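wait is this the right file?? whatever heres the structure
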């Protein structure tokens, strides 16, 4: 009888440890995913702009946004007023 109780304790421990490991893996995955999104910055379109080569009203673009290469995030109303920035 005594050996059976030790075996039950081991199985219970294995199940608890397995559940804890799964929870930790999920938490790590969520933290890493959020961290990657923070590094990318806010997308230009969600900030109300469009990535262009040259923005007349704001030479440095909208702060805190990300565009490729040397492009800057220009407010959409400026792009619509001056479509020449798209070329």
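ok assuming it is, sequence goes like this
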């Amino acid at each position: 009888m005594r050996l059976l109780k030790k075996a039950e304790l081991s199985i219970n421990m294995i199940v608890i440890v397995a559940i804890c490991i799964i929870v930790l893996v999920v938490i790590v995955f969520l933290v890493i995913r959020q961290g990657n999104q923070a590094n990318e910055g806010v997308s230009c379109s969600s900030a109300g702009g469009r990535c262009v080569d040259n923005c007349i009203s704001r030479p440095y673009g909208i702060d805190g946004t990300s565009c490729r290469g040397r492009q800057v995030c220009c407010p959409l109303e400026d792009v619509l007023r001056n479509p020449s920035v798209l070329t």
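DSSP finds two helices and four strands in the chain. so i think its the right one actually
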